[in-house]
Amino acid sequence: MNASITMTTGALKPEDVVAVARHGAQVELGTDALAAIESSRTVIDALVNDTVPHYGVSTGFGALATKQIPIELRAQLQRSLIRSHAASSGTEVPREVVRALMLNRLSTLATGRTGVRPIVATTYAAILNAGITPVIGEYGSLGCSGDLAPLSHAALALMGEGPVRDATGTAMDASEALAAAGITPVVLAEKEGLALVNGTDGMLGMLLIASADLHALLSIADLSAAMSVEGLLGTDAVFAEDLHALRPHPGQRDSASNMRRVLADSTLISEQKSGAHTFTRVQDAYSLRCAPQVHGAVRSTLAHAESVAAIELASAIDNPVVTIDGRVESNGNFHGAPIGYVLDFLAIAVADLASISERRTDRFLDKSRNHGLNAFLADDPGVDSGHMIAQYTAAGIVSELKRLAVPASVDSIPSSAMQEDHVSMGWHAGLKLRKSIDGLARVLAIELLTSARALDMRDGGLESSKSSPIITAVRRQIRTRVEGPGTDRFLSPEIESVFQMVSDGSLLAAANHAAATPLA
C-alpha cells in the first residue's frame, strides 16, 4: 500500500491505524505536530539542570520516584529505563499489533504534550515506514502506567538495540535493521524514555483492529443467519421493519434490515408463504427469530467501544505531561480501565454471537428439527456422518469463547512496591479478544458451509437454485472452493476454505455484489 497518513496534533482516524498496522501505509509528521513537539521540548530543557526534583526528568520511576538523580546521570536514567522495562516474555505478539502500538505512541508524541525532541518522533516514524517491527512477547503489560514492557521494546529498537523483524519478517538485531534502512539510532535525553513507554497504545491498537474485523463479521453474521432461515424453511415475516420499529435499537434495526435484504425474492421463503409446503410452525426457534435482537445488541456494544476508542485516539497520554500552558504535571491518564472494560465487553458480545450461530448450525443436523433434510446432512446417514463433527468443532470453539468472555479487567495485581496498586489488565483483555474474533469467524464459516450444503440438498444445487439472489451469489462463491453435497470427504480443508473467504472479505463481497446496496 502506498497510502500516506499525515500526523497532526489532532486525532488519528480508526481506519488510519488499521491502514498502518495491517496494510503498511506510510506516516509523516505534519508541520503543526513538529512545531508543537519543539515547543514542549523547550519546557523540558528548562528543567534539565534544575535542582528541584521533577518526575521523569530528575527522579527515578514508580516506587523509586523519591530518589533524585544527579544531573550527569539523567540521560543514562532514560536509557536504563528502556533496557530494564523491555522485559516481555512468551509468544511473539503479531506484527499488526506492534505496528498499531507504535503508531498510537507516535500519535501522542505528535500532540506536543510529551516533551520529546523532534528527532525522537521523526525517527520513530522512519522505523514504522521502514517496516521494522520490534519483537515483543505477549506477557509484560498490566495495562497501567501504560503498556510498559511492549512500549519499551519499541523504544529499545529506537535506540538501535534488541531483536526486531525487518519488512520481510526476517529476525535480526535492531542495529542491523536500522543501518540497512539508513536510520540513525536515537540517544535518548531527559524525559524521553518515559515519554515513549507511558501509554495505552497496545490495548488501543488491539481494540481498533478488533473493531474493524467485527464490523465485517457482523454483516457476515446477518448473512449466515438469513441463509439458515432460508435453509430451515423459516419465515422472514419477523424481520419486518415495523416490528423492529417497536423496539428501535439502532443495531437491531440494521441487522433486521440486512436479513430482509438477504432473503428478498427467495423462492423457498415465498413457497412457505403460499402454502406450497406443509407448514405447521407458528414461530421459528429463537436462534432464527431473535437473530436481529442478538446481532443488534453486539452492534450496539461495538458502537460503545468505538466511542471509547475515538476519545483515546484524541488523547495525549503520558506521565508527566507538558500542559498547554507549559506546566509539567503528573497524572493518571495512562490507566487502561476505559479500554479494558470495552475489550472485555466485546469479548462477551462475541461469545454470544458465536453461540447463536452454533445453535443454528445444530438445527440443520437434527432430523427432527431440519424439516425434511437427511440426518447430519449426510449423503447416506449411517454410512456417512455429514457435518456431524463440524458442529462439534463449532461447539468447542463456542465453549472456549465463553471462557475468554471472563473479564480480564476485574483482576488487578499490585506492582512496583505498591506504588502501582491498581492496574487494568487491558493488554490481556485485548489479546483474548483477538482470539475471540478468530473463533467467531470460524463458527460463522461452519454455519455458512452447513447452510450452503443444506440449500443444495433442498433445491438440487445452483443450477436450480431457489435461494434469493444474494444467497445464490454466496452459495456460488462457496462452491468455487468447496464441492457440493456428496459422500463424506476430508472436512477440515472445507471449513478452512470458507473461513478464509470470511476473513479475506470475498464472501461478503460476493453478497454485496448481488445486493442493490451493501449490507450494513
Automatic annotation (TrEMBL):
Pathway: Amino-acid degradation; L-histidine degradation into L-glutamate; N-formimidoyl-L-glutamate from L-histidine: step 1/3. It is found in: Cytoplasm. It holds the Pfam family Lyase_aromatic. Its main location: cytoplasm. The keyword Methyltransferase does not apply. It comes from the Bacteria. Keywords: Histidine metabolism, Lyase. It catalyses: L-histidine = trans-urocanate + NH4(+). PROSITE patterns: PAL_HISTIDASE. Its EC number is 4.3.1.3. GO terms for molecular function: histidine ammonia-lyase activity. PANTHER family: HISTIDINE AMMONIA-LYASE. Belongs to the PAL/histidase family. NCBIfam families: hutH (TIGR01225), PRK09367.1 (NF006871). This is Histidine ammonia-lyase. The gene is hutH.
